TrEMBL record:
Transmembrane segments: none annotated. Residues 43-369 form the Sialidase domain. It comes from Methylobrevis pamukkalensis. This is BNR/Asp-box repeat protein. SUPFAM superfamilies: Sialidases (SSF50939). InterPro entries: Sialidase (IPR011040), Sialidase_sf (IPR036278). Pfam families: BNR_2 (PF13088).
């Protein structure tokens, strides 16, 4: 591991920031990426992510670790999936109102996100053990990244994004858009709600503001800004996403509402305008013998734009908003560096990104953040709202 990160033994240690503790989760994999955190009924903090040799490779699968209340460190990684023909990515945990814990994730062929389907396993014992794998969404090209939200009215909302391609052209993200799966019967059936004018806006993250009001933020394929949309009717309709004043680098973000009422968002607040180097695509290092298209098309998307890959993924910062996402004046940088991500190579230690954050708030007010450290480890940090505000 790089000198600026703790060993991957899961033990909590003081971090370089005053009052902050951190750990790197145990994993047998050379590459670990795309963490998602969840609080379980017994008070444990659970984290899921994908690991293997490189994103898109067929050995990429889902792993899970737990941090029990009062424990000194995280448990050894438990492998949760293992399809030898697909790259299994972007796992998410969700505790349903009935106490069952859902684990959902994507499964794609090599670097072709337009082939992805969504699978799930369900736990009936609070996340201690999980039932068999099953297909949850079989529509090719469906991707998840953010958890299910249960609104005050009891409606379930699962944000998805759809990896669309032009026939004969390899997926590169140019035509991706967002939608919401909405259920009023506890997840038994789902209606698809399109987010209007959302091409290029992905990783939709929904937060319930109460009284039927919802706010959502998006990652931008154009690497320009975090986008924001609102719903005022319990998720039946959404406004077209509009750019905020927070930059985005075409990398994942996550937002929650704290017990204080403030919104906390973790992201890389940097845009492509600050760096011109770019990659051909996210999967330009993955061989795909079954794909007849050898290169990514240079043709523009239906919106006349190309997804921008390669903007540095650093710093990794947590921001606060006290006005429902209209402004983000408070900021704390959790990890800094050059954020080099023109390669996904973890074997040779070439990637230096801090990315793909997840954030939850514990019952005691502690804010937990997990994120990718150099595509090598999942790093967990604990902060407080006062620290972010500089108090």
């Amino acid at each position: 591991m790089p000198a600026d990160a703790p060993p991957m033994d899961g033990l909590l240690r003081p971090a370089g920031l005053d009052g902050v503790t951190e750990a790197c989760l145990p994993s047998p994999c050379v590459q670990n990426h795309a963490a998602n955190l969840a609080l379980l009924a017994d008070g444990s903090l659970a984290c899921v992510w994908f690991g293997g040799t490189m994103e898109g490779a067929s050995d990429i699968c889902v792993h899970l670790s737990r941090l029990a209340p009062g424990a000194a460190g995280w448990s050894p990684a438990e492998r949760m999936s293992g399809d030898p023909a697909r790259s299994e990515q972007n796992p998410v945990l969700f505790t349903a109102p009935d106490g069952r814990v859902w684990l959902i994730w994507t499964a794609q062929r090599a670097g072709n996100q337009d082939t992805a389907i969504v699978r799930r396993r369900i736990s009936a014992d609070g996340g201690l053990s999980f039932g068999p794998e099953e297909v949850f969404i079989d529509t090719a090209g469906t991707f998840v990244r953010q958890p299910v939200v249960v609104t005050a009215a009891g409606t379930w909302l699962l944000p998805i994004f759809r990896c669309r391609t032009v026939p004969g052209v390899k997926w590169s993200g140019d035509n991706d858009d967002s939608a919401v799966l909405r259920s009023t019967d506890g997840g038994a059936t789902w209606a698809t709600i399109d987010v209007p004018a959302s091409t290029g806006c992905v990783h939709m993250n929904i937060v319930d503001l109460g009284e039927g009001g919802l706010v959502a933020v998006f990652r931008s394929r154009w690497a320009d800004a975090v986008y924001l949309s609102r719903s005022f009717d319990d998720g039946r309709n959404w406004s077209a996403p509009e750019p905020t004043d927070v930059p985005n680098n075409n990398s994942s973000i996550q937002m929650i509402r704290l017990s204080s009422g403030a919104l906390a968002m973790v992201c890389n607040p940097i845009g492509a305008a600050e760096d011109t180097a770019r990659r051909v695509s996210l999967y330009d290092e993955i061989e795909d013998e079954d794909d007849a298209v050898e290169t990514v098309s240079a043709e523009p998307s239906s919106q006349g734009r190309k997804a921008f890959w390669g903007t540095p993924r650093a710093p990794l910062s947590i921001l606060l908003s006290d006005d429902g996402g209209r402004s983000w004046p408070a900021r704390l940088d959790l990890a800094t560096g050059d954020g080099y991500c023109l390669t996904n190579n973890s074997v040779d230690g070439l990637n230096r990104e801090f990315s793909y954050p997840s954030v939850v708030e514990g019952a005691d007010g502690t804010i937990h953040v997990a994120f990718t450290h150099h595509r090598r480890a999942i790093r967990h940090m604990r902060v407080t709202e006062r620290m972010i505000r500089g108090e």
